[in-house]
Amino acid sequence: MAVPDLDLPSPPDILRQGPFREGSFGTHLRDERTAALLGRALGIAVTICFTTGYISHLHQHPPAWLDMPSRPVRGYQLTQGLHVVTGLAMIPILLAKLWIVWPKLFAWPPARTMLHALERLSLLALVGGALFEVTSGLINITQWYPWSFFFPRTHYLVAWLLVGAVLVHIGVKLPAIRRGLARDETTAADDRAAPDGSFSRRGLLIATGAAVVGVTLTTVGQTLRPLQRLALLAPRRPNIGPQGLPVNRTSEQAQVARLAQDPAWAVQIVGARTVALTLAQLRELPQHASVLPIACVEGWSSTAHWSGVRLRDLLALVDAPAGASVRVRSLEEKGLYRASTLKHHQATDALTLLALDLNGEPLHLEHGFPARLIAPNRPGVLQTKWISRIEVQA
Ligand SMILES: Nc1nc2c(c(=O)[nH]1)N[C@H]1C(S)=C(S)[C@@H](COP(=O)(O)O)O[C@H]1N2
Ligand SMILES: [Mo]
Predict the structure, then answer these.
(1) Ranges of residues in the chain whose predicted pLDDT is under 70
(2) What span, in angstroms and rounded, lies between the C-alpha atoms of 353 and 355?
(3) By the 8 A CB rule, do 79 and 55 touch?
(4) Are 307 and 282 spatial neighbours (Cβ–Cβ below 8 Å)?
(5) Using a 6 Å cutoff on CB, does residue 77 contact ligand 1?
(6) How far is the CA of 185 from the centre of ligand 1 (A)?
């Protein structure tokens, strides 16, 4: 049966040139060498991302046997910044790699032997895990939660699944990886070969690299101030918000505005005895300054000048015993991050403050007025705002 010609408008000229031209991504790119080179880049990114993510997990859910050090002061800012940077940079590499190997997913017959079937199943964990990690991470940094699972836990568990799948994949593909990465006189020429004016392997790698640089330059400004004006794709800027600092959870969301501004507010310090201190009384105690970053798990961070009372001075008022950890509670009644725990060494660190001032002014309501916690080498989620109680734990 004759199919009538559809009178479709022809694509604009620009779509018939350069990389958009049909055939510009020739099938000659779908080979072991391209897959191995992109795979190596992905392997490096996954290693950095997993390690920094694991460090973040240890900060947020410290096991009993581990005391996360309070130094370097900017440790978490660096590792979490790297985590988000490598996670974002990985996206173009992952897409390029999937494009290279995609047809192999539909190879027929699906499995030749039992072992082959198992290997192909592990690809499900590899591809699915990688796509899940970058997508859920990306969605998380935009603070959009279109799911009902608890992000940190799921992201963490799938990371282990992914790392397992990566190790299996490297093991199975080792001979192909060796061949793909081997260098001799012919590979250089082959890297440059571009049949019929299509992309060469080198061209594809350069384009992928350019995408990585582009993504990084337009997002890293959320933590590197000199690049903040380039941070077009970043959800946050380090300097936008009251007192030159971003806000994650607002006083309205936390429903604390009334209580936080109540003139009768006093912080309860609960230890061997209980002491209540009003804002005026807190200001009469020795004041100390710390220059510390707020470093959010979402990858943005911002350094500020804080001042207030050392937490250890407050603990001394209630004779907190050596070694005791401390639970800091917010006026907030519902939120996930309305309280946090400091181990003894964190609570008694000279830089750990019950902060009253930020950048030389009384704390803005959105930054935790009348008092918030600020401590070195600590994730933003644990820098509790609008504090109501400080409890020494037995
Ligand atoms: N009580 C309370 N404190 C909180 C939060 C919260 O939800 N409730 N969010 C935390 C998070 S996730 C971050 S990143 C920092 C942000 O501090 P900022 O708003 O002063 O920049 O506050 C932390 N303190
Ligand atoms: Mo955060």
Answers:
(1) 1-6, 8-9, 11, 14
(2) 5
(3) yes
(4) no
(5) no
(6) 57
